[in-house]
Amino acid sequence: MQAGSRSSKILDLGGEGSRSVAVAVASTLVFFGLVVLLVVNSAGWPEVKQAFFDPDVFRASFPDIADAFLLNVRIFLIAEVFILVAALGIAVLRSVPGPVFFPVRALAVAYTDLFRGIPTILVVYILGFGAPALQIQGVPRDPLFWGIFSLVLVYSAYVAEVYRSGIESVHPSQEAAARSLGLTRPQSLRYVIVPQAVRRVVPPLLNDFIGLQKDSALVALIGPVEAFRQSQIEVAGSFNYTPYVATAMLFVLLTIPLARFTDWLIARDRRRQR
Amino acid sequence: MSALTLQDVHKSFGKVEVLKGIDLAVVEHEVVCMIGASGSGKSTLLRCVNLLEPVDRGRIVVGDQELTARGVDVNVVRRRIGIVFQAYNLFPHMRVLDNITLAPRKALKLPRAEAEARALELLERFGLSDKRDDYPDRLSGGQQQRVAIVRALAMRPDLMLLDEVTSALDPELVAEVLGVIRELASEGMTMLIATHEMSFARDIADRVVFLDEGVIREEGTPEEIFSAPKEPRTQQFLQRIIEAGRL
């Protein structure tokens, strides 16, 4: 119970009672006060302030960037759905026992090695420019499609490893219990092993998704105008870097709810099982 | 009629031969208790009967079906054999009721309502009705083990295998689990039980088997084994048990 109440807190003050709250507030103010003072008093601050934090440029560019950011949201939402399914498939294939299925396991290993190895930016370039150039009938030529496809390929490799660590963390006695009741191996996986595995890997899994949200900006490299590309356009028009900061802000704002949602999920699960 | 027959069963883990040729027959409605030191092969034997471990050599026949024959659907066979483990092995992410109904629903394809009716009837019988919606972690060890027994019974097995089901329990919780097993025995459930509870074995068993270094060293009625053991190894084992104050 103790562990549950502790982790359900978003930030741990490191103590109980009003005194520790006061100490936490005071030390926070002092620390950030010092950082702000240091930055504001630096030699280059006036120029940096002008170039990166111009309120007028911010106001002017923000609506278009926010609009373009909706494309990022679409990109990673679509990608996430496919990643969740594909990665689980790969993880399960990798754990299929028996000598007959060696090629399947080998293929799954090769896949994860390959796509964790290649920089995402290269996958986006190669597929984004290469695949449509083949001009095969029925193969989409939309760069957005290939951008999302690349992200799915790369992140499925990571998420498959996350799933696999979860599957392996479920004690073999659980499978023994399931099989001894007459459930088949796929049934044991589906009803007993995977549900427990997924619960355990929600935090690292959502961590990968935060990475994916950021990498949705890479799709810009092959054409689609998402938030990062839009901010480049704005920067080119205003000779001011403030649009980059606006874009960064949008990404952070989206990450925070996801991170808090993760915390909430973990806390809820702990409460339920106790 | 024989419910379970083992013929010359061998099993090795790597170079260690754990079972060195086991011959054993359990007839219907019979309760057979296996005693013996840790590592004598009791658990391995039970796991082999349920095909959780493939045997290296020998035959295992349950009812009229040979499990060790080629092309046997192990999933179908397992539905007829219930096994209860020392560590309960309940599914922690499921409520008690779902733990019990999972296999009847998915393996036997019973409709949910029927599976739940069956489960509730069993829970009622063993005084666990109020636990139906709890997660296993909320239950005491004794309650968890009773739920595990109910989970196995919900498949309506012909044969129950119990693998030291009280060994992980606090002493004050042992009685409630043994009570359940007694009740099963009185109803005529065929059981093969590995146990360290000698007085329980003496009390409940129709026949006691002493397993020693992977072979059945001696078998007989509880009276024969506990009061007048013939083999020196059995005498030694029981002497140690008596010295430990457990008989």
Order of helices and strands of chain B: EEEHEEHEHHHEHEHEEHH
The total of helices of chain A stands at: 11
Mean pLDDT across every amino acid position of chain A: 88
Radius of gyration of chain B, whole Å: 18 Å
Total strands of chain B: 10
Helix vs. strand class of chain B: alpha/beta
Radius of gyration of chain A: 24 Å
Mean pLDDT of chain B: 92
> Helical element count of chain B?
9
> Quick one: biggest sheet of chain A?
none
Query: Assembly state here?
Result: heterodimer
- Low-confidence segments of chain A, ≥5 residues, pLDDT <50? 1-8
By secondary-structure content and strand pairing, the structural class of chain A works out as mainly alpha
Distance between the termini of chain B: 33 Å
In short:
The complex is a heterodimer of chains A (274) and B (247). Chain A has 274 residues and is mainly α.
Kindly describe this structure.
The complex is a heterodimer of chains A (274) and B (247). Chain A is an all-alpha fold and 274 residues long. Chain A contains 11 helices and no strands. Chain A is flat, with a radius of gyration of 24 Å. The N and C termini of chain A lie close together (7 Å). By secondary structure, chain B is an alpha/beta fold. Chain B has helices at 42-49, 74-78, 96-106, 112-125, 141-153, 171-186, 198-204, 222-227, 232-243; strands at residues 2-13, 16-27, 31-35, 57-62, 65-66, 81-84, 159-163, 190-194, 207-212, 215-220. A 6-stranded mixed β-sheet of chain B has the order 6-7-8-3-9-10, sandwiched between helices. Chain B has a 4-stranded antiparallel β-sheet with strand order 2-1-4-5, with helices on one face. In chain B, α6 (171-186) links the parallel β7 (159-163) and β8 (190-194). The longest helix of chain B has 16 residues, at 171-186. The radius of gyration of chain B is 18 Å and the shape is globular. Chain A binds chain B through residues 173-174, 176-184, 187, 191-192, 195-196, 199, 272-274, and chain B through 47, 50, 52, 75-76, 78-79, 81-83, 85, 87, 89-93, 102-103, 106-108, 135, 137-138, 151-152, 155.
